[in-house]
User: Which sequence fits this backbone?
């Protein structure tokens, strides 16, 4: 009998996969700041585990070599892999264990529903595996369109996702909810798929990735993005999502423990003024630490304290994420964990 499991993010990790922002992408005059943010994230992670940093070309390699924050990091390995953008959570491998043998799942990536160029990013997982830096594990291609940021698992059979992203938006238009749930169960080894119909951050162009909204932090606990300001445009949607989360039950039929995260003050794009999808649910779990987004906001401190209480055995580190949120992404979006091989 085949036993397949997608480990939760807090399981032991072999490495973290990151992508260096490339010149000529969408960063414009924010390229240097984005590189500083990824360098800061890489430097923190290298204190706890190896980091694989994908460089699109020789210019990226040269800028990595010249960046002071990356100098002398013995845990850092740079690999040259073509890419369109830096969001490794969505383009990198989703790693499962099948009878304790690793498999690197490569789902179809179409640029978040055809919004952006995706040819190189759709080939990214296979290209990273071809470098030989991921270790043992076979590539398993799936034509179902799925990004890593759209799913959360608790390691005990439950998966959390949003309808709007996977089946009621730009992707998988010919697949209904039951068929999608079957695909997820078979590919990822989960028993239960929890679908959320509500929840959205203004400015989000992923159509409701769960990693911006609600995150498993233990088998029985979900941290979620809240909003206490009734005048904020997020209030109704996030309140409805909180009600949906409260109605979910685990394998024992018990409700999950819910922990609300604060919402930072609105951040707007400096060029055209649109609101950016800033929130604290987009934190990153690694061996021995949790890296949380910071926005130079009073809520940064409250988010730090809440997440620290959720992970008392891990260091809580922060990275200024304003450069990343300008391109509608964050720390979790930029990183994909490679689970450690079973011993």
Assistant:
């Amino acid at each position: 009998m085949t036993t397949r499991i997608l480990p939760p993010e807090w399981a032991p990790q072999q490495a973290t996969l990151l992508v260096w922002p490339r010149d000529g992408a969408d960063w414009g005059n924010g390229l240097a700041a984005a590189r500083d943010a990824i360098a800061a994230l890489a430097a923190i992670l290298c204190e706890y585990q190896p980091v694989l940093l994908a460089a699109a070309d020789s210019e990226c390699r040269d800028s990595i070599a010249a960046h002071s924050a990356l100098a002398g990091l013995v845990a850092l390995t740079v690999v040259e892999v073509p890419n369109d953008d830096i969001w490794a959570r969505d383009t990198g491998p989703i790693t499962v264990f099948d009878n304790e043998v690793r498999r690197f799942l490569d789902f179809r990536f179409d640029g978040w529903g055809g919004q952006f160029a995706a040819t190189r990013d759709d080939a990214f997982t296979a290209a990273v595996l071809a470098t030989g830096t991921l270790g043992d594990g076979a590539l398993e291609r799936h034509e179902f369109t799925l990004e890593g940021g759209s799913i959360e698992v608790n390691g005990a059979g439950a998966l959390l996702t949003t309808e709007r992203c996977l089946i009621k938006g730009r992707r998988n238009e010919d697949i209904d909810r039951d068929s999608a749930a079957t695909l997820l169960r078979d590919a990822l080894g989960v028993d239960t798929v929890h679908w959320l119909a509500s929840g959205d951050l203004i400015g989000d162009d992923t159509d409701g990735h769960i990693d911006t909204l609600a995150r498993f932090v233990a088998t029985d606990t979900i941290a979620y993005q809240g909003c206490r300001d009734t005048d904020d445009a997020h209030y109704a949607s996030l309140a409805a999502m909180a009600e949906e989360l409260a109605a979910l039950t685990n394998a024992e039929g018990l409700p999950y423990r819910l922990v609300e995260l604060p919402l930072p003050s609105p951040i707007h794009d400096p060029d055209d003024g649109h609101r950016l999808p800033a929130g604290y649910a987009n934190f990153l779990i690694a061996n021995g630490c949790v890296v949380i987004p910071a926005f130079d906001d009073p809520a940064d401190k409250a988010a730090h304290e809440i997440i620290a209480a959720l992970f008392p055995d891990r260091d809580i580190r922060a990275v200024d994420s304003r450069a990343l949120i300008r391109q509608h992404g964050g720390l979790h979006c930029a990183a994909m964990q490679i689970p450690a091989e079973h011993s």
Notes: The chain has eleven helices and 17 strands. The chain has one domain: 4-339. The longest helix spans residues 31-45. The CA atoms of residues 164 and 207 lie 6 Å apart.
